Amino acid sequence: MLTTAATPTRQLTVSLRPATEAYDYEYFGSRLAEPALLADAVAVCVFRAPLLAVPVGGPRHGGYMSFDLLTLATATRGLLTERPGFPDLRVRWSPYRDTCHTVEWGDPAPEWWEDDAVFGRFYGYSEAAIAAFMQRHHKTPSSAVPEPCSPTAP
């Protein structure tokens, strides 16, 4: 007979903290086209790890956060619901075990096939931050090789 000992389960909690407590506060502050948005940002704290939720405004049309557990995503949506700058909050549920659920706000994101500069502008990054990112990630391994010759070329 299989028996299991009852182990106490720890309640997973999500809380909001001041934006300056977020691990990625400086990251966003140095890359946003309009850093003043940080005044209305908040740190979403999960497992004692606060990450920044930046509101929409100015050139920033949308935002998102990723979560491995659907319960954490729905709890975060609930906490952000009444906050200014987080319109049209929605949870995008992932049916795949290896893909995170997301909480999204603002306009729908560009289609997946758009280039990184389009995404950077949508999320309100400065042109300098976009250019720096594109410089570091300008080619995929498959696009970095020269064009193949035609098999019929001399």
Written description of the protein model:
This protein has 154 residues and is α+β, with helices and mostly antiparallel strands. It has helices at 25-31, 70-80, 116-122, 127-136; strands at residues 14-18, 42-46, 49-53, 62-67, 90-92, 101-106. The strands form two sheets. The chain has a three-stranded antiparallel sheet with strand order 1-2-3, with helices on one face. A hairpin with an 8-residue loop joins strand 5 and strand 6. The longest helix has 11 residues, at 70-80. It is globular. The model is unreliable at 142-154 (pLDDT under 50).
Beta strands, count:
6
3D shape: globular
Strand content: 15-25%
Q: Give start-end ranges of low-pLDDT stretches.
A: 142-154
Output the strand order for the largest sheet: 1-2-3
* Structural class by secondary-structure content: alpha+beta
How much helix is in the residues? 10-25%
Major sheet description: 3 strands, antiparallel
Please, what is the average pLDDT?
Answer: 86
Order of helices and strands: EHEEEHEEHH
Q: Write down the Rg.
A: 20 Å
Distance between the termini: 75 Å
Tally of DSSP helical segments: 4
